[in-house]
Fold this protein.
Amino acid sequence: MIVGEERNNSSSLVSAQLSDYNIVMTPSDPTDFIQLILAKILDFFPAFVDWLRNLVGTLTGLCLVVSLMFFIGIIYCVEQLKRIREREKEMYELKVVPGYETVDKGDPALSTRWETVQKHIESTNENDWKQAIIESDIILDEILTKMGYHGESVGEKLKRVEPADFNSLQDAWDAHLVRNRIAHDGSSYTISQHEAKGVINLYKKVFEEFYYI
């Protein structure tokens, strides 16, 4: 009798708990436990939806903050890049003091060829930029020969130059090395217009040092 009473009490308790969810059952229903679990799930679902909404809101806020930080970072990088470009322009266009024998006036023939170089470098074609560098190196070769430096190549002539006599010697070397890469690598060597202009400005510093342009 005691066991029977405990079972009745347990069934009554389940029925009372499920009555809140409009689940009708009798004490002798064998699906009491399953219905209780379903009731618990239905009770949990609204709380889960609220939690999910809060999570989405939090992630949205974090995304906005991160996006703002990235935007500020991009603006900072752009401004720094502008400053670097300005410094490069100042460096490339820096006038040098003559350190060796110079001509009193620019060479008319070389000046005409230099104008052609300028037209090539302002083109939108990468091959024209490369041609401008190659032509500038040919001009450099001729200037070195006129200055009394001899050799089979521009490199050999530059090796004979004393740094004290040639203030823009390193510029000549840097520009000539780019020319060599163009000549040796051919179409596989790529260069941007900004880089090509930088190389041309190196040649320009050499030519201006000796007043050939």
